[in-house]
Specification:
The complex is a heterodimer of chains A (338) and B (389). Chain A is α/β, with parallel strands linked by helices and 338 residues long. Chain A has 13 helices and 14 strands. Chain B is globular, with a radius of gyration of 28 Å. The chains are: A alpha/beta (338), B alpha+beta (389).
Chain lengths: 338, 389
């Protein structure tokens, strides 16, 4: 028996991954020839398949930006739709390389799950949607309300905190999937629907009479949404983090999908460093020095991604607000490339 | 001279049998060891917190239906208990209704009335051939769409209201002295069992049938009434009333619970119907003819001769239907009924991220429920088994 254990241990040790230099995740992605990205199952504006089966949305475009940085081809992504409940397990088990699924960055998620949030791609907050005929104009008037939401999200906790803090009674009706939350709300099961405000705007589009419903002004929580990777592969984390920063820096410096090639001739040293004309910053994260050119040409800059998917001219009609850059009154502030 | 067909000990059938068993056990043990060490190694490498300490942490979320006191500051261990009780509620009510409906459908299929027999047959074929999850959605959304909003509730007097938020009933609240009433009730029930057992012995020995029902009712009702009066009627009712957006007070039966019970009961009843039909048809025709020859009525034949014999064939497959119903109740999460899977393997799992521990506990709970149900049904089966006198 001891011999058996010894043999077994030897096999396990031999099979353990060698911690060589570089990023094992990046090596795997390159070997596969595509990036595996976990996204929402269907949230318009963030991740949803269109009529032709193409995935669209902000979270989807972020995956495309990472793919463009690696392969110079934003199409080299395979999307895995994940429910709120299984998303972390899917990433932990290595079924996806990256989770870009409107996930709130919280301390417990960052420290206890073996995962790493790379940054904030969208500043969100939890809100309420109610039917207009309820004649409610503030969340404080929701005493005794039945509130529909999803299980397995921070929304259940925020809801409990908010009603407790305000001394209001409520009942929470928590479904596993978005589709049933909306159907139950539509069927009159609940007085209010609560989730992140961006989600409310998106779900409202699916209602039979979207204009009969209003989103209440109160935002009851901080919901910084961002992409995650597994802990333990520092370089991969850096690659994803700096892809996010590159999108924001590109917007800040005015590099767009259309003018990226002309900007190579820019005299601005910041632009020249960002686009790899001076220095080779991309190489330190395992990419080429023109990585930002690839990203912006493949997916656009942060502002373009925002406007295309959720902005005021999209069906969601969300204003930039907190999601503007720091120099335009928002919260997005990317460290410089230098 | 050695015999030509002597078999060495290591080639005998007995040795080989033992050897294969040992090999199999070792193989399974090694596989298990590899799986467990692999999982533990991965968890450690990824810095995922492990252990059952999270059960003492504050849950922080609310649950819409709790049989025991619970609020946002309760622990995850409490959430587990709430979830188990909610699962038990659905499973036990579902089993009762499924059994009643199933027996009606099963016996109905053998009815001499053509229409009744065909209707029951059609019921079985339609209901058992549609996926349960779809039926749950059907009942849930059909019920929701049909019911009015809280301000347009259907009311029965000022006591009972039905709307899309549930069925509101007056809720009993017990005051001091209720314990005496419970004691009186318990004493009445125990007394009734004694009386019934005695009547049974008398019948078996002398053949004289004593009607026990009136006696039993007296034994239960009278002490309870006296105890209640003596304690000053220690039960008060709170009445549901519209306050703010919804009704408050009383007790509420959630539409999710109603839909789930209807779906589980009707679905399982279609299987039970088949089991009952097969069980009855399994009793030999001679039994029917013999009891008619002895002058028993049709009802008596069914009640005293056919069903007791059919039960022996019905109980084992019926047990597995009960287990199925209990396990199927985990589909509750789809329509927001707060069962074990929803509140514990759903919300708690997501908040704590302790997937392995939580799923293990959840599986252990379902396993325990199933084994208990099985044990009870086996005991009952042994009781009704053929005894020769």
């Amino acid at each position: 028996m001891r011999l058996l254990f010894a043999a077994l241990t030897a096999v396990l040790v031999a099979a353990a991954p060698a911690w060589a230099a570089g990023s094992p995740t990046l090596e795997r992605v390159k070997k596969n020839g595509y990036l595996r990205c976990g996204v929402n199952e269907g949230l318009p504006g963030f991740a949803s398949p269109d009529a032709k089966g193409n995935w669209t949305g902000m979270d989807v475009d972020f995956c495309r930006a990472v793919a463009a940085a690696i392969f110079n081809d934003p199409k080299k992504v395979r999307f895995t739709p994940t429910s709120a409940k299984v998303r972390f397990t899917v990433l932990q088990s290595g079924e996806v390389d990256l989770l870009s699924r409107n996930t709130t960055w919280t301390m417990s998620r960052d420290t206890q799950l073996g995962l790493e949030f790379v940054g904030v791609s969208y500043y969100d907050g939890q809100g309420f949607m109610v039917p207009k005929k309820l004649n409610v104009t503030s969340a404080k008037q929701l005493n005794g309300a039945n509130v529909c939401t999803n299980t397995g999200t921070t929304t259940e906790l925020n809801l409990a905190d908010y009603f407790r803090a305000n001394g209001l009674k409520y009942k929470v009706i928590a479904f596993e999937k978005n589709a049933e939350v909306l159907a139950a709300y539509d069927a009159g099961r609940c007085d209010a629907y609560t989730t992140d405000a961006s989600g409310l705007y998106a779900e409202r589009l699916k209602l039979r009479n979207a204009s009969d419903h209003i989103i209440l002004p109160e935002i009851i929580s901080k919901e910084p949404l961002g992409p995650l990777v597994n802990q333990g592969d520092q370089q991969w984390g850096d690659l994803v983090r700096w892809t996010l920063f590159a999108l924001m820096n590109a917007e800040e410096l005015g590099v767009t999908q259309r003018n990226a090639d002309q900007m190579l001739k820019s005299a601005n040293p910041e632009v020249r460093r960002l686009l790899g004309v001076e220095g080779a910053f991309g190489e330190s994260i395992g990419l080429t020095k023109d990585w930002v050119v690839r990203i912006v040409k493949g997916a656009g800059n942060y502002g373009e991604i925002f406007e295309r998917n959720v902005g005021v001219n999209s069906p969601l009609k969300i204003k930039r607000g907190q999601n503007a850059l720091w120099n335009k009154g928002g919260l997005h502030y990317a460290p410089p490339v230098r | 001279m050695p015999r030509a067909n002597h078999i060495p000990w290591w080639r005998t059938r007995r040795t080989q049998n033992v050897a294969f068993q040992v090999l199999l056990v070792v193989g399974v043990a090694v596989l298990g060891f590899v799986l467990v060490t692999n999982a533990m190694e991965t968890i450690q490498r990824q810095n995922i917190a492990t252990g059952f300490r999270f059960l003492n942490n504050t849950a922080g979320f609310d649950i819409v239906q709790t049989l025991i006191p619970y609020n946002e500051t309760s622990t995850y261990a409490r959430v587990l208990l709430v979830g188990v009780l909610n699962t038990l509620v659905v499973a036990s009510i579902g089993i009762v209704f499924a059994t009643l409906l199933g027996f009606v459908i099963g016996i109905g299929q053998l009815s001499s009335n053509w229409l009744v027999a065909k209707l029951c047959r059609a019921y079985v074929e339609i209901v058992r051939n549609v996926p349960l999850l779809l039926q749950i959605f059907f009942w849930y959304f059909a019920v929701l769409r049909a019911l009015p909003g809280p301000r347009e509730s259907w009311g029965l007097g000022d006591a009972v209201f039905l709307n899309s938020r549930g069925l509101y009933l007056p809720g009993p609240h017990t005051d001091q002295g209720f314990g005496f009433v419970l004691l009186a009730l318990a004493a009445g029930v125990v007394g009734s069992f004694l009386v019934a057992a005695r009547a049974r012995r008398v019948r078996e020995v002398t053949g004289v049938v004593t009607p026990v029902l009136p006696l039993v009712l007296t034994l239960i009702v009278v002490p309870v009434a006296i105890a209640s009066a003596a304690a000053g009627f220690p039960v008060t009712f709170s009445w549901p009333a519209l306050s703010g957006l919804n009704f408050d007070g009383g007790t509420v039966v959630l539409p999710e619970l109603m839909a789930l019970i209807v779906a589980l009961a009707t679905y399982t009843a279609s299987y039970i119907g088949e089991i009952v039909r097969a069980g009855i048809q399994g009793v030999s025709r001679g039994q029917m003819e013999a009891s008619q020859a002895m002058g028993l009525s049709r009802g008596q034949t069914l009640r005293l001769v056919i069903v007791p014999q059919a039960m022996r064939q019905i109980i084992p497959p019926l047990t597995s239907q009960y287990l199925n119903l209990t396990k199927n109740s985990s589909l509750a999460v789809a329509i927001a009924y707060p069962d074990l899977v929803s509140v514990f393997a759903g919300t708690s799992l997501s908040q704590t991220g302790q997937a392995i521990e939580i799923i293990a506990i959840t599986m252990a709970v379902y396993l325990t429920l199933s084994l208990l149900t099985s044990a009870f049904m086996n005991w009952y089966n042994a009781r009704v088994a053929l005894t020769e006198r």
